[in-house]
Amino acid sequence: MLKLRRATVVETLSLDPRANRVADPNAARSGAASAGRSRAELEQRLVVELAGEEGNGMRREAIADIALVGRAQVGDEVVVNVQALDLGLGSGGFDVVHVNLTRGLGDPARPPGAARSAGAGEDANVMKLNYTSLQHAVEPVEEELLELPLERPVAVLALHGQLSGLAWSFAQAAPGSRLGYVQTEGGALPGGHSRTVRVLRERGLLAGHLTAGATFGGEGEAISAAGALHHGLRTLGWDAAVCGPGPGIVGSGSSLGHGGMVALDTAHVALALGCPTLLVARMSSSDERARHRGISHHSLTVLDLLLEPVTVALPAGMRSPVGADLRAGLGAVFAGARSQRAANDRPALAVAVERPVTDRPARIARHDWRRASVDLPGYAASGLPAETMGRGILADPLFFAAALAGGSVLAQLERVEGVAATSEAE
After folding, report:
1. Would you call 419 helix, strand, or coil by DSSP?
2. Phi then psi for 213, rounded to 5 degrees?
3. Order of strands across the sheet with 179-184?
4. Burial group, residue 122, by CB count within 10 angstroms (0-12, 13-18, 19+)
5. What letter would DSSP give residue 355?
6. Which residues lie below 8 Å from residue 205, measured CB to CB, with a gap of 6+?
7. pLDDT in tens, 281-330
8. What is the pLDDT of residue 217?
9. Taking Cα atoms as reference points, which of 129, 135, 162 lies closest to residue 247?
10. Residues 96, 63 contacting (CB under 8 angstroms)
11. Contact at 8 Å (CB) between 273 and 226?
């Protein structure tokens, strides 16, 4: 059940300075910088003091989704969900405001001080977070007319932390091209919770932000990832799209019980819509958990289960995540190279499928593996977010190199599709 506590707002915190950097000189190319809503209109950071004997005057950081619960002021009485912070979850190190008792009970459709969320006009008739206490109406972006195939490339992320590297690299390789972001399930559901998206929109590195499925609060609301991709690529005119979860991926340590599995669904959607599909693999050179070093078991599982081949980007000039020979390297991985457990590490990826183990490397090697050059120093100098699980570029270069490689390969796919479209038109 919900773990709710009464609290009083004692402080409103300043915005993260990373969201207010000077705009990138390339921002004007997409005209997107002015279209994004400011951080102040999306999410509010607070310090609250828990009430009652159990709270004992404890002060904790909290966040409030302004479109849902309105803007809080010092002295407001609020109800906060404290469960994530009490559990010590790495991605949920704060309480979340559930309702503002002082000023949030007037207009149930739009609390005082709340920003008007995307699609929340008079015609809004589709619920998000439906059948929960936070259900709210949105106007979906899906159109009646279905025009397929889309024939524009889609990159599928494993983690939100890959988004900024991919977007920056794509812009370097394809200046003038418009890249849109579709936020999927698997991580944070509120679209306003990502500092990365706001920085990328301000710099013109993203042409738009749509929230699909249970996610909400983007610049447009879609009922499905398919609807979001169709709207972005066909109606909004994006040249390419990147899909992936919001920050704070959900995980259990099991083979299938993690937010990265949404990549499997998203890749299938992109393929079905006729989009050249790129999977940006999760890689790491220094993760404490053996199952995530090299190519993470999250990505290997998705690559194994995909019904059709996709493109996979590998960073050139770096030690191969699976050895010099892809098939031999994968064979070593699945033959037990990851079965050796690091200290306090959970068991590595278990091979529990009907097919023999020897079949798995072949299923993964069937994909179109492409190497791409990466510019780690250039990305480090960009000032964009460069941290994953507390590790920066110097501590985990492979993680960021994989995202940069994804942006370069996505630009290659976009150029190929652009040439094909031009040839057909002529």
Report:
1. helix
2. 65, -130
3. 220-222, 208-212, 179-184, 240-245, 154-157, 277-280, 311-315, 368-372
4. exposed
5. S
6. 24, 26, 27, 164, 167, 168, 170, 171, 179
7. 988 866 666 666 668 878 888 999 999 999 999 898 766 555 555 565 56
8. 92
9. 162
10. yes
11. yes
For 102, counting Cβ atoms within 10 Å of its Cβ (0-12 exposed, 13-18 middle, 19+ buried), the class is: middle
Token couple for 183? 């936020």
- pLDDT tens for 32-88 read 333 445 545 788 999 999 998 776 778 999 999 988 888 999 999 999 999 888 887
Q: What is the 3-state secondary structure (H, E, C) of 223-275?
A: CCHHHHHHHHHHHCCCCEEEEEECCCCCECCCCCCEHHHHHHHHHHHHHHCCC
DSSP conformation class of 136 = E
C-alpha torsion sign, points 180, 182, 188, 191: positive
Both tokens of 273, joined, read 């819509």
Cis omega before residue 377 (within 30°)? Answer: no
Burial 403-413 (b: 16+ CB within 10 A, else e): bbbbbbbbbbb
Amino acid at residue number 28? A
**Burial readout 257-267 (b: 16 or more C-beta within 10 A, e: otherwise):** ebbbbbbbbbb
Residue position matching structure tokens 């958990």: 289
User: Looking up tokens 């997107």, which residue turns up?
Assistant: 32
Cα 233 from Cα 218, distance rounded (Å):
16
Q: How many CB atoms lie within 10 A of CB 227?
A: 22
The CATH fold of domain 4-15+29-116 = OB fold (Dihydrolipoamide Acetyltransferase, E2P) (2.40.50)
Which two tokens mark 401? 């190199």
Query: Which three-class secondary structure state does DSSP give residue 393?
Result: coil
